[in-house]
């Protein structure tokens, strides 16, 4: 199957996690941290630490290490996750 | 009866109880049973050979299927509430949405996760836990990096090092914190009967020796540097309390640093339910107090496996069987005599495995210096970006326990709900107040973060849909 990672089409296999696909592509930075905007990537690998958050098919807050890939999945990395309140699309800017 | 977790302990408990005629439902957050130990390769991966371990996994999973126990996968338990008429209501979130599961007996088999160890640079991409790397190797066949430094204590990281070497990675060094010396000889009896483990350990060392991996007993990490990811690590020999001897430190180039300092038990559910916990650092931190039937301080709630004290897969299965039998007895499915006889049969291997686990804890358990590596600029709460300096200022300003520090700094308020930072904040409080990171009495006084449901982040829209016809789900997703 193929998935799209930051606009690039990448080959993936049934049963792989999003994290595995990203790491296999040499990508280490999955997101930026909430306050200090520091690069963060896979840490615990088992769904406990919530560091590996990426955006999948438009949904933010997805743990890459716990999410199996699906054909055509759109994966976006590098954003600040969780999304700061003032940048959230639902915010009216007074947050 | 509900079993939370389908790893070795949970599966053993489910099978034992189901065979006795109990109606069993097993819940697990992963897509397939097996836990971390029996994690399977995806079906689409063509295995070159079926290993002995793989065949064991097949057998255990086959038993689970044959037992008739219901298995809900990709399902997270986010809350547990006692029912007024007895038993508990488990709040679930799975592929079908939110639901509840009622159980008259509860077996917690929630497993463990790697001990978080903060040091300068630990949040850089490329710093990973040994458990996480093991999963990448075993169940995803992915190398997390090319030049890896391993720092930790105990056999888990040796297994990971060997696995990395066999996968073609360059292991720049394996830092083993423990340098047991002659004192360790008194633990020799614990190795009796553990031929399988000894053979495995021997295999790891042979692999590492053949690859000429630099083995550094009595060494540890100081800090990691890099701009956007790991670039180099500073390492040093350790004193008896595991403080780095900085005068003898050296710097090594690496793109990945693997931290393997043991496991801590996942006890959020036990705490939420109100089970009494004891602090046993060499066994995985706070663990539920249990009787000989693996029952916690709450009648009808049992805790087994690494989620109740680190002991490995063999011990987990033995404890699981005991709890499954005890629960079946409690629910009237087994006679007292049959249950006692079955439990008695497990005592020999139970004692042997407990001895081995205690030995590992004594030899490889963490020491003070491990909790004193962070400096004031080190982020301790990774989710909320709270540094050690901020936490220490909160304590200097009057905060005395972790919940007060949380209220002042936001440490522990993030997605991981304190799983990663909770103990670290307690250590930081103790360090600030006593000058030592592991004063036991002070650690207990610093407390634990209050656990409230949901114990995993849950989208509000899912809860909003709850009550509109969502009922308990069985394995195929049908309401029932």
Can you walk through the features of this model?
The complex is a heterodimer of chains A (95) and B (480). With 95 residues, chain A is mainly β. Chain A is built from one helix and seven strands; from the N terminus they run ββαβββββ. Chain A has one helix at 18-24, and strands spanning 2-5, 8-11, 31-32, 39-40, 53-56, 59-63, 74-76. In chain A, the strands form two sheets. Chain A has a five-stranded mixed beta sheet with strand order 2-1-7-5-6, with helices on one face. In chain A, strands 3-4 form a two-stranded antiparallel ribbon. In chain A, a hairpin with a 2-residue loop joins strand 5 (53-56) and strand 6. With 480 residues, chain B is α/β, with parallel strands linked by helices. Chain B is 34% helix and 20% strand. In chain B, the strands form seven sheets. In chain B, strands 3-2-1-7-20 form a five-stranded parallel beta sheet, covered by helices on one side. In chain B, a hairpin with a 4-residue loop joins strand 21 (379-381) and strand 22. In chain B, helix 1 packs parallel to helix 7, helix 7 (312-330) packs antiparallel against helix 8 and helix 9 crosses helix 11 (422-434). The radius of gyration of chain B is 22 Å and the shape is globular. The two termini of chain B are 16 Å apart. Residues 469-480 of chain B have low confidence and may be disordered. The A-B interface holds A 13-17, 19-20, 23-24, 28-30, 33-36, 38-51, 53, 61, 65-66, 68, 82 and B 29-31, 36, 41-45, 113-114, 116, 123-129, 131-133, 135-136, 140, 142-144, 228-229, 266, 379, 382-385, 414-416, 419-420, 457.
């Amino acid at each position: 199957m193929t998935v799209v990672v930051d606009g690039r089409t990448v080959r993936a296999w049934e049963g792989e996690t999003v994290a595995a696909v990203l790491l296999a592509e040499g990508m280490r930075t999955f997101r930026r941290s909430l306050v200090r905007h520091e690069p963060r990537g896979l840490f615990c690998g088992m769904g406990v630490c919530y560091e590996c958050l990426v955006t999948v098919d438009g949904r933010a807050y997805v743990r890459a290490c716990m999410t199996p890939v699906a054909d055509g999945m759109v994966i976006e990395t590098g954003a600040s996750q969780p999304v700061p309140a003032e940048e959230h699309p639902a915010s009216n800017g007074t947050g | 009866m509900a079993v939370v977790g389908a790893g070795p302990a949970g599966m053993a408990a489910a099978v034992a109880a189901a065979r006795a005629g109990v109606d069993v439902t097993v819940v697990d957050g992963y897509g397939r049973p097996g836990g971390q130990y029996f994690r399977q390769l995806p079906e689409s991966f063509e295995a070159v050979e079926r290993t002995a371990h793989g065949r064991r996994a097949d057998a255990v999973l086959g038993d689970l299927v044959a037992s008739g126990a219901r298995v809900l996968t990709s399902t997270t338990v986010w809350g547990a509430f006692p029912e007024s008429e007895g038993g508990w209501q488990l709040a679930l979130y799975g592929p079908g949405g939110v639901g509840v599961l009622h159980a008259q007996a509860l077996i917690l088999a929630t497993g463990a996760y790697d001990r978080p160890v903060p040091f300068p640079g630990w949040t850089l991409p490329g710093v990973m836990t040994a458990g996480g790397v093991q999963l990448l190797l075993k169940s995803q066949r992915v190398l997390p990096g090319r030049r890896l430094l391993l720092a930790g204590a105990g056999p888990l990281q040796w297994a990971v090092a060997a696995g990395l070497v066999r996968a073609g990675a360059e292991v720049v060094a394996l830092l083993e914190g423990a340098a047991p010396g002659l004192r360790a000889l008194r633990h020799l009896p614990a190795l009796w009967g553990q031929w399988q483990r000894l053979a495995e350990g021997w295999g790891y060392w042979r692999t590492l020796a053949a690859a000429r991996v630099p083995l550094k007993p009595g060494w540890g990490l100081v800090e990691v540097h890099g701009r956007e990811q790991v670039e180099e690590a500073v390492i040093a020999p350790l004193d008896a309390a595991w403080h780095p001897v900085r005068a003898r430190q050296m710097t090594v180039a690496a793109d990945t640093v693997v931290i393997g300092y043991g496991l801590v038990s996942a006890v959020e559910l036990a705490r939420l339910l109100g089970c009494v916990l004891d602090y046993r650092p060499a066994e995985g931190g706070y663990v539920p107090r249990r009787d000989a039937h693996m029952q916690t301080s709450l009648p009808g709630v049992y805790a087994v496996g690494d989620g109740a004290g680190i002991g490995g897969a063999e011990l987990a299965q033995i404890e699981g069987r005991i709890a499954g039998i005890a629960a079946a007895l409690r629910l009237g499915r087994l006679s007292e005599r049959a249950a006692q006889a079955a439990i008695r049969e497990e005592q020999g291997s139970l004692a042997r495995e407990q001895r081995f686990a205690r030995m590992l804890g004594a030899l490889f358990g963490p020491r003070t210096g491990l909790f004193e590596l962070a400096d004031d600029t080190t982020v301790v709460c990774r989710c909320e970006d709270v540094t050690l300096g901020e936490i220490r200022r909160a304590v200097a300003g009057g905060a005395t326990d972790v919940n007060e520090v949380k209220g002042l700094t936001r440490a522990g308020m993030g997605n991981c709900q304190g799983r990663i930072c909770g103990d670290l904040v307690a250590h930081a409080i103790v360090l600030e107040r006593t000058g030592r990171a592991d004063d036991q009495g002070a650690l207990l006084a610093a407390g634990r973060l209050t656990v409230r449901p949901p114990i995993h982040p849950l989208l509000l829209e899912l809860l909003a849909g709850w009550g509109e016809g969502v009922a308990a789900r069985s394995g195929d997703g049908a309401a029932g």
